[in-house]
Structure formats: C-alpha cells, structure tokens
Amino acid sequence: MALGVIVLSRISANEYAITPGGAQNVAPLISINGTSGSTSVHSGSLLLTDVSLSPVTWLNYLWFKATADAEFVPAKALVPAGVPVSQLDAQGFLEMAQSKDAAKVAALERLGYSVGATPDGALITAVGAKAPAEGSLSVADVVDEVNGKQISNSCGLIAAVHALAPGTRVELGVRKATIKRDGAIARGDSTPVAVTLGKAAHPSASNCPGVSGVSTSFLGVGLEDDVAYRFPMDISISTPNIGGPSAGLAMTLGIIDRLSGGHLVGNRKLAATGTMDPFGRVGDVGGVPQKTVAVSRAGAHIFLVPHEELGAAQKKAPAALKVTAVSTLDEAINRLEALGGTLTMANGTVESRTSKGLAP
Question: Does the model's pTM come out above 0.70?
C-alpha cells in the first residue's frame, strides 16, 4: 500500500488545480522613499489576493475533486504552445516583476509625477521545447546585442536575424536573469551567448516595421520589449513567492493610497484584482471565483474586478461582499472617491469627487 501511495503521488494527471489562496493588505508590502508627502498606513486595508496553483497527481485528484472551490486546468493551457510547463514559475515571477513596474508607472503618472522610459532590449518571455535557443536563453533574460550591434527592443532582435539562413551562428549579448527563491529577478552585465538558428517549420512574416518577407530561420523564443523606467522616487513592493500579473490593480491603488496618506482607502476594507498596464488599463485575470472566496473569508466588503469577470465573481460572492467591475484605473479611483476617498496629487492638491465637481 505504501508503495502504491508513493507511485500515485508521482504520476501527473497533466492538470493543475486552482484553489482559493490568501488575501493580504497591500499597504505594508509597499515601501516608498524619496518623497516629502505622507505615506502613512491607516486602519483600513486594500487586499491583494491570489490563488493556489497545484499540480494534480492521481493521489490528490480525488481530494481536489471533493473541494467545492477547486477548478481544474490542463497544464498545456497555462503556457504558450510548445513551451514546457517547467517554465511556468519563471514566467509567473517575470509577469509579477512587469506588473510592479506597470503599477508604479500608472500610479505615479495618475498623480501627476513624471516617469521616464527608455527601450532597453528584447525580453525573453518563453523558450520553446527543443528550440535552437533552449539551453542558451532562459525566461527573463534580456538580449541587447546581436553580432556586435546593439538592439533596443524585440523588433531589433527580429530584424537582426530575419534574413539569416538556418544554420547561421549568431552571437547575442545577453543580460542573464537570476530568479531568486522569493521571485525577485536580478540581471548581470551583458555577456556573449552563441546560438545557431534553426529551420522554421512554418515560415512567417514579421509585424515589425521595416522587416519584410518571411523568415526561414528561428530562435524559438517568445519576445517582448524590455523598458528601463526612471521613477521620481524609490518604490519597492514585496511579494515573496507570488507570481503572475493579477495583483496589478491592487498594487497601483496601494501606491496611490500610500502617497495620499491612506485617505483613498480610509478605514474601509476593500479588495481588488486585475492586471494593470502603464496606461492605466485594467485587464482580465484568472481564478476570480477562487479569489472571491479568499477575499470574502478575509472580511472584505467591496471587491473590484475586471469587467470580464464580474459574473464569475458575483456567483461566489456572499451578500456581505459587493462586487464592482472596472476597466480602467480612473474607474477604480472614481469608485473609491464615491465612498469618500481622496488622493493627493504631485503638486499637493487633494482630489475628491467634490473637487472634480461631482456630487459627494
């Protein structure tokens, strides 16, 4: 029997179980230096919520099946096609790091601060199984040079290899990423990495400006533009062992609340989920039913969710939890100002519904 239990615990069902995670106040996670304004924490709370994502084996399958709030997701649905599930954690930590930057940009610019941005290379977001780049490049690496020529974004990398034939050896300048156990990402100086281009099974055209025709070779990586931001103050957000982009809205509102002396949230107990981009747009996230259960257990009274997830959240919300849909940062702020919240702008003025000419 013992041997059977061990065997069943190691046989994967090729699925993951999503279950309610935690809900914690985002304010103590945020540290701000370099501003003369008040960044105190009030008695209220804005909850950041997550889910637990667990690999399913034939041993724990029945246990998850008996859990009312569990949802099963195929492993292949969690990563892009052709990408090993083993990259899931690295991708999640990269998405969290990007989400933090976006939250800082959106929050500071909404308050009237100036944030600088400089293109900083091609960011590796995935590496295909058995791709030419496998073993040479990893998730969160940044390529900033191709054959001695500097590049500033993903299209720069695509343009540099687009016309090269399969079998061509290219030398990349790469800032290798180290993902620490708590999810923090550190990169060193650019170092040379040689990769031999493979033959594309399905040659395709690029959407990059100035790059025409199909490419017959490929690296086998997912790419995004890496951006270096210049913030007017030092803001750090501690999220040990939490991956993914879904805390973006909560972190953005948390930064604004801290820079407003806690007056945006006040003494209320709120929760929020949703991605955030640097332009203040709220995006869809997964696991909202499970997150609704988590914030309800934590005692939240209002839960801000993306518009796409309103119905899913309402189905799980008890009467004491009001679910409100938002699609932008401004919509979320309007909801909190309608509850009496205020925010302090970079010039020191206080914004509220009354100051905007709206009824209290």
Answer: yes
